[in-house]
Amino acid sequence: MCTSVIVAANATTHRQNIVSRNEDCERDIWNKYFVYRQQPEYANEKVIDDGLWHLGNGLKVPKPTQAFSYSAAPDFDANNEASSLMPAKFLYEERGINEKNVAMSATNTLAMNDKAAQADPLLKQGGITEAVIPTLILPQAESARHGIQLLGQYIEQYGSAEVNGVTIADVNEIWYFENGSCHHWLAVKVPADSYLVVANAMRIHDIDLDSPEVLHSPGLYEFVCQHQLLPDADKHHFNFAKAFGVTGQPYNVDRIWLAQLKLTPSLAQPPRQQQYPLFLKPDALVSVPDVISVLTATYEGTELEGKANRPIGYDKTAESHIITLDKQQCHELQGVIWQAVSTPLCAMYLPFFGAVQSFPASYHSGTNNFDAHGAYWAYRTLFTLAYAHQQSAVSGIGNEIRAQEIALYNELTQLMPNLATMMANSTAQTISFLNRYTLGNCDLMLQFAHQRRNQLMNDLATIAPATE
Predict the structure, then answer these.
(1) Helix (H) or strand (E) holding 404
(2) Does residue 363 lie in a domain region?
(3) What is the C-alpha separation between 233 and 117, in angstroms, rounded?
(4) DSSP for 254-282?
(5) CA gap 175, 68 in Å, rounded
(6) Cβ contact 313:300 at 8 Å
(7) pLDDT at 78 over 90
(8) What is the mean pLDDT of residues 429-458?
(9) 286 secondary structure, DSSP code
């Protein structure tokens, strides 16, 4: 149920690779927390048996040789999602940056067509799934391309129980990956001057399977021809999405149309086409606030207002992240995660540097039951009360938050040269400063959320009940 916006460096204002996604869920309450894994899950010998790592969903793989640390955003409900074989409850980690500054956002849940499902049916249990992909790949990936190759090899060997879209990036490249069936997959490198938008349908089409900027499972083209998944398969203009997926559903193409309308309005595309361009150049260079404007976008003021019922800015978002990777910075400053918890309609994106290995308590504690201290519940209750009060309250609070984000973004942009100088003098002192900087930003915005929540509670309490 997610929406991703991916922008390569030459299409951005600061020449940064940008990977972003709204992690949308089926239910309103889906609490997340944030953690830095000093060691991967397989460092725990309890999950290793005869050299095999038990991932908790039935999948067993040889214990990896690499063991990179990484940041993650697992579910609070992992206790119920995991099995007894996975005592650390590392499932659904969703996004992160490892110590090599390889970033991942996983996944966009995709749809598979009936013909592909019959040709290479998905596993009923075990295999590669969204629940394990970041946990499996981030501790091993030395580069974006390496991460794609690892994921592909695992799917070829162990199969998949789902079809998913995954983004893996480093400071040099962004790759977007789709598996279309149990064992077949394809990945494309995002052109340096372009962006890509993904909803919940397969997107890869009109690509050359022989291009060095395309990776795929062995025998992919022959498999498609053998099972007649495309009536006119063309190896040099290959339509993976049509072969394996379901195209043209308003639920998905409406969001693609809306995002491309915001970033490339000059194209003036009609809504509800079967497929939209895979890669586009933006009309203007894209910044983090521009990406936020897409991730929070609705159809208000467009020709789909009142017709489309699934916007990008969504009330059932568990968390939303924007990862920037900047090769112009020193290693410790290259990766930043702009993180919002709960729906970004009423939550602020705050910067967390990949090198920071601790998180404020409010982002690291709590459950799926309401509490007054956790960051997720601060923003979730703010949205709930604003929505209950009146719809304009949601947009009003959202506008306040967006203004503060822009101020924070501009402040951090100006601060980066000083951080680079500090890092050259003392890495430890700079990391200590970044910890305090992060904590201060989080505390200020929690105060904002609590103040607005209290104000809404007062307003709702003063509404006189109807009398007979």
Answers:
(1) helix 391-425
(2) no
(3) 18
(4) HHHHHHHHHH-GGG-PPSS-S---SSB--
(5) 20
(6) no
(7) no
(8) 94
(9) B
**What total number of domains does the chain contain?**
2
Q: What is the pLDDT of residues 13-54, one digit of tens each?
A: 999 999 999 999 888 888 888 999 999 989 988 889 999 998
**Three-class DSSP category at 327:** coil
- Position 353 in a domain: no
In a 13 Å sphere around the CA of 119, the CA atoms on its Cβ side amount to 22
Q: Are strands 95-97 and 48-49 parallel, antiparallel or unpaired?
A: unpaired
Say which DSSP state 355 is in: T
Per the structure block, which two tokens stand in for 112?
């598979």
341 near 432, Cβ under 8 Å? no
Full residue range of the structural domain in which residue 438 is found: 368-461
Q: How far apart are CA 396 and CA 386, in angstroms?
A: 9
Task: Give the separation between CA 217 and CA 206, rounded to whole angstroms.
Answer: 17
The DSSP secondary-structure symbol of 368 reads S
Q: What are the structure tokens assigned to 250, written together? A: 């308003």
In one-letter notation, the amino acid at residue 258 is L
For residue 292, what is the enclosing H or E element?
helix 288-295
Phi first, then psi, for residue 419 (nearest 5°) are -65, -40
Residue among 309, 246, 303, 300 at smallest CA distance from 275: 246
DSSP-derived secondary structure letter, 8: -
**Residue 358 placed within a domain:** no
Report the Cα–Cα distance between both ends of the chain, in Å, rounded: 44
**Are 325 and 373 in the same domain?**
no
255/95 Cα distance (integer angstroms): 21
**Cβ within 8 Å of residue 354, ≥6 positions away:** 71, 97, 101, 103, 332, 334, 335, 336, 337
| 3-state secondary structure at position 139 | coil
pLDDT digits (tens, 9 = 90+) for 85-143: 344 456 889 999 999 999 999 999 999 999 999 999 999 988 999 999 999 999 999 99
